[in-house]
# Entry
Amino acid sequence: MTKKLREALVTSPSFIWLTLFFAIPSLIVLAFTFHGHTANGGVGEWSLSTWRELVDPDYPVIVWKTIRISAEVTAWCILLALPCAYAIARMKTKWRAIVAGAIMLPFWTNFVVRVFAWKTMLHPDGWLQHCYFAFLQFRAWCFEWLPPSVRGFCVWSGLASPTPPDPASSTILDSETAVVLVSVYTLLPFAIMPLYTAAEKFDFSLMEAARDLGAKSFYAFRKVFIPGIRQGLVSAFLMVFIPAIGSYVIPQMLGGTNCVLIGNKIFMRAIQNRNIPHASALATLMAVSVFLPLGCALWWRRHQAARDKREVEVRAARLMLGGTK
Amino acid sequence: MSGFLEFQGVTKRFGHVLAVNDVSFSVKKGEFFSLLGPSGCGKTTLLRLIAGFEQPDEGRILLDGQDITRLPANKRSVNTVFQNYALFPHLSVYDNIAFGLRVARRPKDEIEREVAAMLRLVQMEDKADRFPNQISGGQKQRVAIARALVNKPRVLLLDEPLAALDLKLRQRMLLELDLIHDEVGITFLYVTHDQGEAMSLSDRIAVMHSGVCEQIASPAEVYEAPKTSFVASFIGDTNFFDGVVTSFPENNYCKLDINGFAEVVCYNDKQKAIGDRVNLSLRPEKFRVSVDPPPRQNPHMNVLRARVEDIIYSGNHTNYWVSVGARRVAVYQQHLGYLLDEKPIRWGDDVWLYWDADTGYMLDDYAPIDESLLPPKAPGGAASANPFTSGREDGAAK
# Structure
């Protein structure tokens, strides 16, 4: 009994914190969506008018774009962070601290200042612009070779544009690419750190064991290292994907009108239109759009795992029968 | 010199540390070969050189006539049983064992058959679906062996595989390893610092010391005829005597004057001449002590008077520390008869110490003897004022 009491005492601060600053505000936001709004920016009477207003063909597009860009940013971050974390974990202890410190160094400069610096670097006369245009031309050239069905999918999903690049309008500033680039730059340390922590705990003699059993380096990396740092991968995904979904400053400053994400829309509705219930509804819509597929995926995995376990049991049973004959 | 696995002048440095120094030897096909030595002697480095985790700075390694010195680890037909097992924690026992076969893209039914056979060999059929953190140390050990053996390596490398197990389990696994070796007939290269393991399993042992192979021979030869003082002291316990040849009482025998001890006869197989300095190793169990004079004497028998300084009774045998002159000698004596019928030997007794000259062995090298390698000193000390009270209390009081 006393032990339970002590446990409750220890967990209570975080519990109270989460209740006060996460659970209750979330519920308030949810409650706001079932209110109308008043002309002076207040929250009106209970009504479903806000949800009715939400039927705007723009919103699904923006939600999908936000998810797609966040996924792109997450994929790039993890792709870049993996070899980085692996390399740091293999360094001498003395070097590890120095490199880990260096990765954290940008945080000493204000975030907005850093994004502003990017604005300068992405200027239409800068070399990044030249690289970008060359990349666009290359992509258009590759696009020619794709079968029509794949081409159609690329256009539909927004991965590629159907027309060849135009030098006048193809600026990297105010483009989706700029948003992805700077988001990756900003969020990369949040991917490296959990991966590095996991990689540091990883037993590298397992890699030797894999090599010993005939695996090539990349096979060992894929089949032994990646599963070995799974926890780190999950944290890295969450640490990057969730901030990317809520991203507001970067698309605002670097995305122009070409990259309006859900964060910018919420800001617009809440501050410019002074429609708090509408902004709340957008936030709720975004949260549901992310967590519903994620929840489904988790359920599916658990279902798969249970099925795999049954299969293994059957195999073991067969083995035992074979052993006794 | 041609063997199945062959080392030719292999040298490996780590920075300025010479881990393996010009080692050459060959292992026969199907042999159980041990690398034995204290930690840091280079035995594990040698194993890693064969596995391909390290590259030698000089020399060549041949496997079945093929030079594998520069071959990457994943292309070598050798497999390793790691000291900490290195089982993949995210894979079940079954999948751990199947790993190598899956890498090699073997057909599914073949994988199933081979893994099943391995599970049977190591008696782990009922644990196939367990994960490494759900099985005991001995079971992990077996999985590690099965995971290596399933690939049908030409040489199985075992890196101190029993070091992490407790004594009883170690003894059982020792027996099982021996059975597995007999059953699969693969060449085993076994690295250990435990002479007991090496002695009981191996066909031949290479005793290593600071990067050098001191002696390669059968367990009995390593024990009975050690080449160097290191081998003599590392394998089992021994008494070293530092003497000078004075005369030849008989063909093949010489008399040694051992300073502070006595003049003793010993077998002269090293063609020593008068005046040569000799390092003699005498195993404690080659001596006999008795209260009565020895039954019969031959010219090769050394018989001395000694005083018992300490006795440690250990059931099947008793350890005595006796002093002759200024020397203390360790004697391990089996109880051949019913102990209670024998004339008892007590602390401080004057006894007869005798041994056959043939049982001593002259060492090749003449190195100053490392005190730490000698048999443990009994409490009390040689300089005990009164031998009759030289006991534990006395030693503690000092």
Chain A has a mean pLDDT of 87. The CA atoms of residues 269 and 275 of chain A lie 5 Å apart. Chain A touches chain B at residues 203, 205-206, 208-216, 219, 224, 227-228, 230, 309, 312-313, 315-316, 319-320, 322-323 (CB under 8 Å).
